Amino acid sequence: MRRRSLLALPLGLAPAGVARAQAPVTVFAAASLTDALRALAAEWQARGHPAPRLSFAASSALARQIEQGAPADLFMSADEPWADYLQQRGLLAEATRSSPIGNSLVLVAPAGAARPVPLARGTDLAALLGPAGRIATGDPAHVPVGRYAQAALTWMGQWEALAPRLARADNVRAALLLVERGEAPYGIVYATDAAAGSGVRVLGTFPAASHPPITYPFALARRAEGTAEARALLAFLAGPEAAPTWQRFGFALAR
């Protein structure tokens, strides 16, 4: 019997493995990765791969969507606890998790509206806010940047005074937008988001000792562990070929 060429098969009859290998990869990624990951997705597509489908939100929201059955192939979190959350539930593929990049935490204000602020133990941020001002950041109840902000403010001795005065956003980009619009006089965001913002100024960087290390765990979702394209994209994003782009957008590389 003559074998038919794979190219001669009707489109609907291509082997399942081939169709699966060419399907776009769905990536659930922390909002702070938006600009860099879009650039890397374009690089990936330029190499001849299908353009990844990118979904950005707070790590907490994405993790809960995956838990509820959302069809994500890769998960890229802005903190370790939300990756732990999924891993403990068996929703991440074993041995695919790594944390290749990091970030720093900064205090921002609308551009031209304030002077640098020394961020040290005892710095009175409450006094800077005045009687009605608020600090925008992610909701510490579930958004990673808010958790880092809470840790830093606790380290400074300011948490009890400032907790009632937080403008609690759904993700770091939403917090940044509140400052850009002048709706909050100050914000606590990642350095990379401050750099991407068009209308904010960095007033100071919180000491690394003031909060847990800001790392980004990447992992393959359990549902995609047999998908070659998803594994290849994860290897690219976490590997040396993507490193220059991560650095260009201000992320630190893991040592």
TrEMBL record:
<keyword id="KW-0479">Metal-binding</keyword>
<protein>
    <submittedName>
        <fullName>Molybdate ABC transporter substrate-binding protein</fullName>
    </submittedName>
</protein>
<dbReference type="Pfam" id="PF13531">
    <property type="entry name" value="SBP_bac_11"/>
</dbReference>
<dbReference type="InterPro" id="IPR005950">
    <property type="entry name" value="ModA"/>
</dbReference>
<feature type="signal peptide">
    <location>
        <begin position="1"/>
        <end position="21"/>
    </location>
</feature>
<dbReference type="InterPro" id="IPR050682">
    <property type="entry name" value="ModA/WtpA"/>
</dbReference>
<keyword id="KW-0732">Signal</keyword>
<comment type="similarity">
    <text>Belongs to the bacterial solute-binding protein ModA family.</text>
</comment>
